[in-house]
Amino acid sequence: MKGKIFLLLILSAGLVSCNNVQQHKERKSAAVSLNKPADNPLLMATLYNYYAAEYQALCYQAYNVAKERVARLRKEFPKKKNMAVVVDIDETILNNSPYQALTIEKNSHFPRCWDTWCQLAVAKSIPGAVSFLKYADSLGFQVFYVTNRSLKLKTATMKNLRKDGFPQVTDNHIYMRTTTSNKEPRRQAISKKYDIVLLAGDNLGDLYEASAKYPLRNQRVAALHNLFGKKYIVLPNPMYGTWPAGLGLYRKKAPVDSLLKVMTKSFGDACR
Ligand SMILES: [Mg+2]
User: Fold this and answer.
1) Residue-wise pLDDT tens for the chain (272 aa)?
2) How many domains is the chain partitioned into structurally?
3) Distance from the CA of 68 to the center of ligand 1, in angstroms?
4) How far is the C-alpha of 42 from the C-alpha of 50, rounded, in Å?
């Protein structure tokens, strides 16, 4: 019992360092469900996005393809001035795996300390992202940043982007979340003046209005398969997004057993 109280005190002390009122309100509820970091289902995904050379390679791959696309478009339309590239921010051009690591270490969850992390403006750029957007900028493309970070984080987000060397980080090139996390209205607002020729994101909603539900979400991807690597550039993010929500993984009673059963049905009675 003494050990348990000690652990709770350590957890509480760590959370006090986060400068956010909401975090303090939630502290008590999180402290009742302690998990060791090694037991946290986010662990492998978070380590992958920070340490894996394969993750790094996938990002370079995505942005190398994106570079080829804008080069080809510029060649096809040498004088077109209104071509635009739209990118999401989190896990598309900025890597927030250190924030995920904090939630694992503190046994907490989003949104606790998220604002604090964003205000620090220390997120590193995703491999290849700065180089691609600088290249698009040099070819005369408009660059728009469309993010679901809240409006109050705009200044800190711009500071982070500028620090990392991203181009066109100006007030009217950044669309924060105001009323809805659906990005379609913001894409439509950009489309009134510009021709969006390429979009990059780690979540399908960064590219088009996507269903959250499995398998509809996957069926649409199959139907649009020709557009990936052309109009749509996808970055890997196994840590979070709409995909786990679509599988019901954010629910209290997540259907983990039935999801695994579907995957292992081809074994039949073997290895049971
Ligand atoms: Mg994102």
Assistant:
1) 344 433 333 333 333 344 443 334 433 333 335 578 888 889 999 999 999 999 999 999 999 999 999 999 999 999 999 999 999 999 999 999 999 999 999 999 999 999 999 999 999 999 999 999 999 999 999 999 999 999 999 999 999 999 999 999 999 999 999 999 999 999 999 999 999 999 999 999 999 999 999 999 999 999 999 999 999 999 999 999 999 999 999 888 999 999 999 999 999 999 98
2) 1
3) 22
4) 12
**How much distance in Å is there from the Cα of 9 to the middle of ligand 1?**
34
Q: Which of 143, 47, 51, 35 is nearest to 93 (CA)?
A: 143
Q: Is residue 250 part of a domain?
A: yes
* Contact (Cβ atoms closer than 8 angstroms) between residue 2 and residue 63: no
Name, in order, each residue with C-beta under 8 angstroms of 34's C-beta and a sequence gap of 6 or more: 7, 8, 11, 107
Q: Find the 127 Cα to ligand 1 centroid distance in Å.
A: 15
Structural domain range at position 187: 36-264
Task: State the residue for tokens 């570079």.
Answer: 67
Question: Contact, 14 vs 37, CB < 8 A?
Answer: no
Does a structural domain hold residue 208? yes
Interval between CA 201 and ligand 1 midpoint (Å): 6
